[in-house]
Write a structure and sequence with these properties.
By secondary structure, the protein is an alpha+beta fold. It is built from five helices and seven strands, in the order E-H-H-H-E-E-E-H-E-H-E-E. The chain has a single domain, classed as Gcn5-related N-acetyltransferase (GNAT) (Aminopeptidase, 3-Layer(aba) Sandwich). A seven-stranded mixed sheet has the order 1-2-3-4-5-7-6, sandwiched between helices. Strand 4, helix 4 and strand 5 form a beta-alpha-beta unit. The mean pLDDT is 95.
C-alpha cells in the first residue's frame, strides 16, 4: 500500500488543486460553505493565490487530500488558526491522509506559537467529526441552519483545540 505524505503543491500545478477542490464541492456539498457553482469559474490566478494556505496529502505524487490552514493577521487573534476545506478523495480514505493533514496543521501551528485552532464541521460528516475529536478538537457550539443546500438547511458544529 503506497504511503501518504503531506506538503505543498507548486503553484504551476494549480489545476490539480482546482480539480480536487471542485471534486470536494461537487461530491460533499454539505461539508463546505462554498459551492461548486461559485468556484468553478475562478481564474488560474485566483486558484494559485489560494494555494498558499493549502496543505496537500499525496499518494504516488498525486494530491489525494487537502486542508486549508489560515493564520489570523489581526493582533488580537494572532494566537488562533482556522482550518477549512478538509477533504480526502474517496479512493484514498482509510489510509491516514486525514490524520496526517491534521497532524501537520497542528505542527505548523505550534511552530507559529498558535494557542488555539478553530474549525466548523457539519454533523452529517461523521467521519470528519471523529477525525477532529481524535486529534483533540471539541465541540463548543452549534450554528443552526448555517447552510442552505437545495432548499434544505443544515447545522454546523463549532470545534476548537488548544495547544
Amino acid at each position: 500500500m503506497p504511503g501518504i505524505s503531506v506538503g505543498r503543491l507548486a503553484s504551476k500545478r494549480w489545476r490539480e488543486y482546482r480539480d480536487i477542490r471542485l471534486e470536494a464541492l461537487r461530491t460533499e456539498p454539505y461539508a463546505f460553505g462554498s459551492s461548486y457553482g461559485e468556484e468553478r469559474g475562478q481564474t488560474g490566478a485566483e486558484w494559485r493565490r489560494r494555494m498558499g494556505n493549502v496543505l496537500f496529502a499525496f499518494r504516488d505524487g498525486k494530491p489525494v487530500g487537502m486542508l486549508t490552514l489560515v493564520f489570523d493577521a489581526h493582533r488580537k487573534r494572532s494566537h488562533v488558526a482556522d482550518i477549512y476545506g478538509v477533504y480526502v478523495r474517496s479512493g484514498s480514505r482509510g489510509l491516514g491522509a486525514g490524520d496526517k493533514l491534521i497532524e501537520r496543521a497542528i505542527e505548523l501551528g505550534r511552530g507559529r506559537g498558535i494557542l488555539k485552532m478553530d474549525l466548523d464541521v457539519n454533523p452529517r460528516q461523521g467521519a470528519a467529526l471523529r477525525l477532529y475529536e481524535k486529534h483533540g478538537f471539541r465541540v463548543v457550539g452549534r450554528q443552526r441552519k448555517e447552510l442552505r443546500i437545495n432548499g434544505r438547511y443544515s447545522d454546523m458544529l463549532i470545534m476548537e483545540r488548544f495547544a
